[in-house]
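Continuing the batch. This is chain 6 of the set; chains 1 through 5 are on the previous pages. Same settings as before, nothing changed between runs. Recording input and output for traceability.
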Amino acid sequence: MPSRPTLKLIASRMLVSLPLILGLTHTASAAKLKTLYSFCAEANCTDGRDGASLIADSAGNLYGTTVSGGDGDMGTVFGLIGNRGKLRFRRIHSFCSAAACADGINPWGRLIIDTAGNLYGTAAGGGSDANVGNGVVFELLPNARHSAWKMRVLYTFCAQGGDCSDGSGPGQAGLTYAGAASGVPYDGTSPLYGTTNDGGAHGAGTVFMLVPRGNRAASHKVIYDFCPNDGCADGIDPNYGLTMDGAGNLYGTANGGTNFSGVVFALKPGSPGTKWKQSVLYTFGKYYTDDPVQPLGGLLRDAAGNLFGTTESGGGNDDYSETGGGTLFSLNGALQVLHSFCAQPACADGEYPEGNLTMDSQGTIYGVTPTGGTSQYGQGVIYRMEGNKFTVLHVFCSLADCADGGIPGDSVVFGPSGSLYGVTGEGGAHGSGTVFELTP
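Output for chain 6:
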């Protein structure tokens, strides 16, 4: 079964079990963090554990994934749904509930929601084999009261076995669609786009397009196969999601490249029935230098066409690694390092960033690191980049027994109230992660 990346496991669960805590607050740089829910509040963690991703809808309801927990410990989709002004926790789906885990296991990627309130996402494994599987794209359809949800698998990767020419392992990719970058809800019928970190014509991963077709099986098409040439200058194993501009071009990151340290790529659609054209916008530098290397996250694109992302290494500020503690960068032709992590003593500004970024209407960027910070166990931070000013908004595991959570997943997202929301994979009242709200 797919496993959580190494960086996510460096903090062990040495946390004391406490009663469920709601409303914890902590202040850092004038920001206030409130714990909305602590996972593993139910016996055997049937409510989920190890938070992976979160989204918010226009009504302020929150929907997310845990990579483990649930009835079979293979992950869940959950909601914190409004009820007379209060958010109540609801487990929406527990994975591996079907024979041979046909519904998938380990849902990493961020969900999307359509205008009818249906949820869409990816699971990293399962789908056709209980022990391995190659992942699925799924849809969850609520009833009128949102009290029960129906799971529907839209596509199973490598269902026929063999060389997995259709791709394998959507991993942490999640899905995107036209209008997603500007916050337009998904219409439920337009093409969905994602990546797989394995499979394809050359075994190095794919970009795919998926078109839902009501009650029929969704239409799947590989629009790019990575590593068509020797050297794999175009990259390999894209593990994160895509962003789309107004012209329908897709942007993403991948490993590999001529320096084996990662690339930023673009895909331009061709005429109907033809392949998409891939171009490498940037090849990251060499390892064992101060160059940014190894992008482990999706890209953010602003109205001016600038791309923003993070690298897990590089920057030259990490005392424990020859390649540095990672960077936050912008790209528009040339690459500019906006911040090199681990620039502060003991990596108080965070270390090894990964996941996605969030931008507000003023162009301020928000993100998380899974490690670093001033707490004893170094379980990550929430940060803000406003122009050229970098600020740590919250240091996780700042409270006793990490009651405020530790090791944040994916990123933070804005709710309609202007607060930021996210999940953690550790800490909380039961040591299994939290859902939190941060007021900047």
